[in-house]
Design brief:
The protein has 383 residues and is of the alpha/beta class. Helices cover 36% and strands 18% of the residues. The strands form three sheets. The protein has an eight-stranded mixed sheet, with helices on both faces. A five-stranded mixed sheet has the order 11-9-12-13-15, with helices on both faces. A two-stranded antiparallel sheet has the order 10-14. The longest helix is centred in the N-terminal third of the chain and has 24 residues. The protein starts with 10 loop residues before the first helix and ends in a 5-residue tail after the last strand.
């Protein structure tokens, strides 16, 4: 497979044709002390988003803040530690958060709509497409969708992490041209600026450009800079640039769209994944793993081939036909991900066998491919 490389256009050229963007705002931007929404910041954000929309751009807002807002309304001085407490705070806080947005946008004559999602919503292809159609219809009607994780029902295994990863998935979902992640620092640094006074703000970087150390999780969020960088990498795989910037700086969004040097620009990749393959790689959660030999790994990563039964060495976990599976080498390194054409039960019988032997072993034949190349994605680190 041809190795991907990053686009290195100047900012102004890269952002000149942005017509649809996803803006993600974190709890650290919206709250004071981690548990109280700041009307001034919501007002500033809504005003800047309305200005962009009047300029002809379509906007999807991904907003955190429900748990923080609910914690404050429940009289707590900090976020709850347990899952049930977080879910309860989210249930109380989400109504307050959306009402604050409703009031702020209403003053400017702008309609908004609420979309609550979990990873399960996006992992199911039909629900994914339903969410996509709803968002497109809202945009067609001139509404700004406000997306948040459905924290009141989400559990640890399916949470996105302060909405950073959710914003990357929404970028793919709505076919956006740009992802902007607004946080409470200036961007990504080469070292943690809280511990190193000489830490340097990174102007731009590739999607694989090292580890950002602009601090861990803030007092109000759970994502931290690592999850923001991972979100940017996922957007880059879809061919979309990401800018990580300080959401409390007045006029930041307008300056970003004007091509000014604001925050950190994470470059997109030239060879972008299509929407469906991006969904397989980043939205689906593997139900199990297929361990393959070096020959199969080479055929997949360099030759763009399907995975055949002859290259399968072992299986881990149980999965059904159509489930997402991780494809790994015997050392456990995952290099690809795809949708299985045979179940783990069937593969136990046909692993290591030639395609012509499948019908003799199983009594039927569902195709030569264990994972077809159309349903298979080579992960970036192996591309």
């Amino acid at each position: 497979m041809v190795r991907t490389r990053e686009i290195t256009k100047p900012r102004a050229a890269l952002l000149a044709n942005v017509r649809r963007l996803v803006v993600k705002v974190g709890s650290g931007v919206l709250t004071r002390g981690g548990v109280r929404l700041m009307p001034r910041i919501l007002g500033q954000l809504s005003r800047e988003l309305c200005d962009l929309k009047r300029g002809g751009r379509e906007i999807v807002l991904v907003s955190s803040g429900a748990i923080a807002a609910g914690s404050h309304r429940l009289g707590r001085s900090r976020r709850p530690a347990g899952l049930a407490g977080k879910q309860a705070a989210a249930a109380v806080g989400q109504t307050h958060l959306i009402w604050m947005y409703e009031k702020s946008f209403m003053r400017r004559g702008q309609k908004v709509g609420q979309i609550l999602l979990t990873r399960e919503d996006l992992a199911d292809r039909q629900r994914y497409l339903n969410a996509r159609h709803t968002l497109f219809e809202l945009l067609r009607l001139g509404v700004i969708p406000i997306v948040n994780e459905n924290d009141s029902v989400a559990v640890d295994e399916i949470q996105f992490g302060d909405n950073d990863l959710l914003s990357a998935l929404v970028t793919n979902l709505v076919e956006a041209d740009l992802l902007v992640i607004l946080t409470d620092t200036e961007g990504l640094y080469d070292r943690d600026p809280r511990r190193h006074h000489r830490a340097r703000l990174i102007d731009h970087m590739s999607a694989e450009g090292g580890t950002a150390e602009a601090g861990g999780p803030s007092g109000s969020g759970v994502g931290g800079m690592r999850s923001k960088l991972e979100a940017a990498r996922q957007a880059a795989a879809y061919g979309v640039p990401t800018i990580i910037a300080n959401g409390r700086r007045r006029g930041a969004l307008a300056r970003i769209l004007n091509g000014e040097t604001v925050g950190t620009l994470v470059q997109p990749r030239e060879r972008a994944l299509g929407s469906r393959k991006h969904w397989i790689a980043y939205t689906l959660m593997p139900a199990g793993s297929i361990v393959v030999d070096a020959g199969a790994e080479k055929a997949i990563t360099r030759g763009g081939k399907s995975l055949l039964a002859s290259g399968v060495r072992a299986l881990r976990g149980k999965f059904k036909v159509g489930d997402c599976v991780a494809i790994t080498l015997e050392d456990g390194r995952e290099f690809a991900r795809g949708m299985a054409s045979y179940s783990s039960t069937e593969l136990k019988w046909i692993k290591g066998r030639r395609s012509g032997e499948i019908v003799k072993v199983l009594g039927y034949h569902s195709g030569d491919e264990v994972v077809h190349r159309d349903d298979l994605v080579v992960l970036e680190s192996s591309a």
